[in-house]
User: Fold this.
Amino acid sequence: MSLLNKRFETPYNTAPFSKIKTEDFLPAFVKAIENAKIEIAEIANSKETPTFTNTIEALDYAGEQLDRISSIFFNLNAAETSESIQKIAQEVSPLLTEFSNDVALNTRLFERVKLVYNSRKSPTTSEEQKTLMDKKYKGFSRNGANLSKKDKETLRSIDKEQSKLKLSFGENILAETNRYELLITNLSDLDGLPEGAIEAAKQTAEEKHKKGWLITLDYPSYIPFMTYAKNRALRKELALAFGKKGFQNDALDNQEIVLKIAKLRFKRAQLLGYHTHAHFVLEERMAKTPTNVRDFLEDLLEKALPAAKKEFQELEAFAKQTEGINRLEKWDSAYYSEKLKQDRFNFDDEQLKPYFKLENVIEGAFIVAHKLFGIDFIKTQDIDTYHKDVMTYKVVDLERNLVAVFYADFFPREGKRNGAWMTSFKPQYVKNGIQERPHVSIVCNFTKPTATKPSLLTFNEVTTFFHEFGHALHGILANTTYPSLSGTNVAWDFVELPSQIMENWCYEREALALFAKHYETGERIPMNLIDKIKSASTFQQGIQTLRQLSFGLLDMSWHGIDPNTITNVKQQEKATFKQTQLFPDVEQNCMSTAFSHIFQGGYSSGYYSYKWAEVLDADAFEYFKENSLFDPKIANDFKEYILSKGGTEDPLELYIKFRGQKPKADALLRRSGLLN
Assistant:
């Protein structure tokens, strides 16, 4: 089956993964780029007077085939990669960057766009069309259309080099994660670990034909060990290995890459007339300026720091009193925090896990979505997948009309990067009167089932699932005309609202009663455990807030200044972390060299958006709580103004339409227990 088909002969036009060979991708990319160039040339060289339809709209639909191939390929590169896929990615990325620059720097095309843009005050133009015009015009102006010929060439070379560096950064981190293994042969070294974690470590060792128990840097292996293992020396070894990814002065070192990316981003911003990379990025975000971001972060820091310091002192005193630890190190953090939480609230994650069998949590999320938004998820076996672990669902509305196709990929494996994310294989849009429905996917790295137990999730994994499911709902319920404005194509500091608000249902007894039941007995989660979950939700919120703020400040320290004076990655990081530091610094470790969000993903100058969106989500959820958890009018308004509208209107205006007022930070501070 050709990747170049306009439509695949598959159920719902889904990707035919089993029929695609890795070697098919490169020639398909080359041909699709060629076809897209022809489409662009037809728009740019048209003899017709430029109009919204023949220029702006035509441009948004152009390259549809290339976009589809790209989404399939780069999703595989993240979730099921191989050396050959990575090699193709290195070859293809510069070609895609070059094509993107060809479009952005096409003078004739820009002139046509500019003509339409300048006549945009037509009363017949819809809000979505105005937004698309604005986006298309800025897509050119912000990508060098107004530059001289010489500067355009400089921009091209910067973008090409950046695309390669970002790929190398990610490949190095994946290789670092895969190459480290902690093989344990003495059972006593696993003291403290839950039975499920020990069994999983045994299974990992067996899969790699080794005797003993294997601990890796994959989160489902790493996190339980750091949280429960009594052996402090081994916790230290594992923490050091995790913290020095990309920071070992070897072939996988990312220090030079970090410096190059930061400097190239600054050079690009300056070329386009912006003070820094952050000024360039934030122009298109809710925050608007680096000053607003810093003020926001520092305001929260001022409120969180006293609480964080108090919590840290309590943790230090607890570690000293219970086990004689005189100086808390980073590898002690999760371990003693868990101990203190157990001591204070008389429960731990291990008590909760039996109530969070993965299949039940999935079903619970689906029930919540049904009660809120009137959609159902029907499991299906007739949709092709890229790995046997991937589950597929048909999403339908109350009239049983197709809303979306949903993929779910839950377990870690080689070739899959760490973390959790939502993505799309096909966007939602309307073309020639035909409503194209989206194909949405979530990818996680959860605890795998073992020979004796199903996949039992930690509470953190439950909230992670609901978080990514919120992103998925943003894609699933999209209802716009144009693909570039659909679903999660919104300002980055708005995109986390749908994901973060969904986490709130995990703390409510009305929602937990729907799905939290013991995997063996079927008994509903006891009310006293729900009360403890609620009580513990503000535990160490000062420390947690400080941690998130430190990441946002680190991001701004790379992108909100001229980085050309920076010569040492570690020193830059140390200076930035000084104002948020609680634990002693670890010289062998560096966060920036593995900070994929900002050096590989799309969060450069945008990491603050997690906290920004927390303000939105706390304020929005408080609105639900003032009425009821599944209030039909509020849920419908959230669906109408937040989930379905995508990027068609200004996000603050959409929020006000939903909420009836601007968001207030007080709701977040109340929820976090930081408001006196």
About this structure: The longest helix spans residues 290-323. The two ends are 63 Å apart (CA to CA). The chain has 27 helices and nine strands.
